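Following up on my earlier thread - several people asked me to post the actual chain instead of describing it. Fair enough. Here it is, all 1242 residues.
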Amino acid sequence: MAGTGGTFLRRFLPSIFGCLFLIYFVEYIPTASAEGHCIWYGVCTNSTSKQKNCLYNGTAQRIQEGDSIKILQEYCPDILAGGFSCCDEGQLKNFKAGIGTALGLLARCPSCVDNFLKHLCDMTCSPHQSDFLSPKKIAQFNSTHKMVVEVDYHLGATYMNTTFDSCKSVQMPSTNQLALDLMCGQSYSCTPQRWFDFMGDVELPPVPFQINYISGDEPTDGFTPNNPPTRSCKDGLPGQPGCSCLDCDDACPPPAPAPPPPRPFSFHGADGYAVVMAIVFVIFTTLFLSGVYCCNAQENVIGVASENNQEMASNPPPAGWAATSADSPEEATFFEKLGAETETRLEDFFQWWGTAMASRPLVVLFFGFCFVVALGFGAHFMIMTTNPVELWASPTSRSRLEREYFDSHFEPFYRTEMLIISSKGLPNLEYTSSDGAVWEFGPVFNSTFLLKVLDLQNRIMALGSENTTRISDICFAPLSSPFTGPVTAQQCAVQSVWGWYENDPDQVTDYLDDNEYLEKIITCSKNPYMCLSVWGGPVLPGVALGGFLAPGEPLSKASRFHRANALILTFLVDNKHDTEKLTPALQWEEEFIKFMKNYTATEMPEYMDIAYTSERSIEDELKRGSKSDVYTILVSYFIMFAYIAISLGRFTSCSRLLIDSKVTLGLGGVLIVLASVLCSVGIFGYFGVSATLIIVEVIPFLVLAVGVDNIFILVQTAQRDPRRPDETIEQHIGRTLGQVGPSMFLTSVSESVCFFLGALSDMPAVRAFALYAGAALLVDFLLQVTCFVALFALDTRRQLSNRYDILCCVSGSKDSDAREAGDGALYNLFRYVYVPFLMKREVRASVMIIFFAWLCSSVAVAPHIEIGLDQELSMPQDSFQLKYFQHLNQYLNIGPPVYFVVTDHEGLDYSDRDVQNLMCGTRYCKNDSVAMQLYSAYRTPSVSYIAQPPNGWLDDFFDWSSTPTCCKQFPSNDSFCPNDNSVPPCQSCNISLVGAEQRPDAQDFKHYVPFFLQDNPTTTCVKAGHAAYGHAVNFKTNGTQKLVGATYYQGYHSVLKTSYDYYSALRAARSISADITETLNRNLQAAGKNVTLNVFPYSVFYVFYEQYLTMWPDTLKSMGISVLSIFLVTFILMGFDLFSALVVVITITMIVVNLGGLMYWWGISLNAVSLVNLVMAVGIAVEFCSHLVHTFSVSGGGSRVQRASYSLCTMGSSVLSGITLTKFGGIVVLAAANSQIFQVRA
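Reply from S.P.:
Thanks for posting it. Predicted structure:
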């Protein structure tokens, strides 16, 4: 974590300020006429107390030879120039030691350091101290000396303000913070006065005495404020450049104005799409009604008879169904003759095929069974994908490739185990702070609530045993190293508010009076680096607290953290690119989830509510969800089967009820559907194509819809066209299949080709669905024209033999009173009620207008369909993960980390000064370096979605290498030694700093970068890089030398709540990376480096949201491919009948567009799940449209109205009973499923 770079800070802050003021005062009470002189000289100290300065009332002393001159020359040249000072060598050595840490924080900006040192130099050594310093309290040190315990320092307001301005932007990259955030006490409200007051606060343990900074430019009480000259941070020291933009706002060019938000398409304030479609509707309706009522078109007759005396024409002569013959049809065209020939051959083939299948039904069923078993056995090899990444992101997608690059070079992002703990029924708290301000705290800061949270935290940390995995075996411990021994639980990075109390309940229970324990919440939330946790790093308030931001409010240092209404516990676990190494982590996570389920069910207090998750939970819940709905699916199938069994039968009398029923036939049809799904799974199991839960949940219903439709068409056609006197059962079934087989073939091929082409989609879930659906529909058609035809023949023989359904061995008595079965209620309803009403000219015109209005309204709203998928929808309703997603959206107030990765290249050498300047962000770096461009992006967070400036290890390495107390090595072998190692003693590295930049030379750079990345930050070395950058650099080996390869810069996105926020953040990060890549490569070429690099962004959520960047193009592509394939198949199989193919395609397109309108009105977003449903809707729409159009095309003559009426009565009633009513009963049951995806579909 970037925040872990503050490990040293519990001790370092006091070191900065305590050592800065280890100077002695001389007892002196100035008067208005007194000349400036010393108030201290020499050191008064002992080994048991804080160092104090000895009082001295006299003139300045001549500067001593030796180290005094060297120190003054380095830090206080103005004092040295005068030749006299009020400090001796001991004071100057303390001075040098004390300012080391402060300089380490501020050294990135020498102008700031120069300004900062001036008031310290004057306070320590100025010959005129008495002009601005006054000892306020003194105490006896020994019999001969006194010491100062409090002092007033009159310091110019101009100096304080300009020094503050020059230092306020200096970065601390390893913590993603500003240096003054660490040095001011209150990071969000630091001012010049607060900064200086904090430095003089005696409450800080190492500060030896109270320093009262009195600000003002005018003389007060005889004192003249010290007002040393200063310079702006953009102005460098003589001969040096000013501070960089990263550390000096004044050096930054003004940020480019944010691009205006895209203007919605509008027309005089109204929605543009609505206006356009309204105009289209009015024009079309006017023209249409004019054509209907003003034109009396004649029914032209163009026809050509097939060998079966059927017609294949757009306008055949009136004949057949309620029609009279035409006298002289016009000559048929070539395509019409070709269509008739195609239809004739298909009819002949399917008639022969049906007769053959019905003649040997048992043989057909046996071979069909063998076929199903052979293909179905492949299901044994099926690979079920539940990994969310593999479900939603293509292996070849950019996000997956970049994720793989990141994981293989830097190890994957940490595994996260999280609890979101909110309160129920607890009131807010009031607390009056030490400064008199009244604070209203959220209810989660109730002491009883806090103590219960600590107990829960400790129990989680204690999970496991010696024989199982413990958290110390798997946790992320950023400050552990081979030199610190085995990892302990205390070293594990845990983001918890109790980290501010060092996990010590006494720090709460001992301060319950007047809620005094809340003072720490105020202090630590203002500056978490003042309250380091037991594991050594800061607990960030935005991570440990939740629910404190108002809707739309950005996270900032001034956020009202004390108003939080949720506590968040985050346990970080190391992740591994090699999944075989994750077994211990998976075991601990499983135990963690079991513990939390039991705790929330049996032990959770009534005033507490907990949502929890582990890294493995999503995948586990997806697996469980696929099993939990099995019974619901089975009930749905049973209802559909029962409907099929009842509807297929045509009952003539009660005595023949069990004879005329079709339970066995219906069951056989359903089994054929399931067998086709099994075969599809088996086929792709053999080929190793992964399956998804969508396949298990969706395809059976799709294939059942199509399969049942064909079953109804085949059976009802045979029932309506009874066996002729000279026909056998086999010939009758063959003739029936000859009539409907071409239509079944047309729809099945159309749907299969549609789905197979849909597999061109890049989305794995859509691709797998399309492949499995296409194969299942194809197998279903083959089994229907073989096994179902054979089963139909057997059932017909049974019925004619008066044997009972199911109990086929039992014969019933022949009913002499049996009446001939009618056409069925639904058929009669269509023929005598619905069709006559629909075919009235006024009704037809109204229907066209109504549905065109629906189409226009859908087109108008379709562009406004939201893109995205709420994570909650993927979880079962009874899942703990669903509750976690809901609480995460409600309470989480921090954005996810984002990494900008610079890829590796063999020709890139980071030890090269030119390359460094293209990467770093401090002085001497190019203004368009990688770090500079990332910082520029951070300055416009509303556009970039970057909330914290991404950190770069290179700048901190330069500071680390120039700090004498940082780099250490063992003298015996010159290997790395921690900077705080004392046994055995280590020696400082002799790093050669060269050039104006004072950076390590090429050889030392290569040698000491690994030292920097192993070194933990301490009070003496704040820039050590192990905690912040231990994973940020990937090394490549060149012989025995390690060279820097790929590396990354880490920042944080702004708070993201909706799908739009997430994919917009991804789009912005990619735009930033593209600009950096282009600039970096251009600069490399200009510098003579023949290398090409790539910079790409990475965050854990990118793989899930990348699809939404191209969701509309992908949807239109999938729909376009599906519709085009249907058009081509229909056009070819219907004998190149362009009119029929266009009718089918236009109708299907209207259905899909209208579904888009319903998605908008019902609030359904566009995503991979809804895209699968749209593709499925296209398949089902083919069943409705193609059967009707085919029947219309081959109907036996008549006007268009008569042929449409005949088609709608005969085929429409079968389609309605086969698809609509069957699916309606089954889908209603799905509304009770646990899976929310089922419920949305239902």
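The radius of gyration is 41 Å. That should answer part of your original question.
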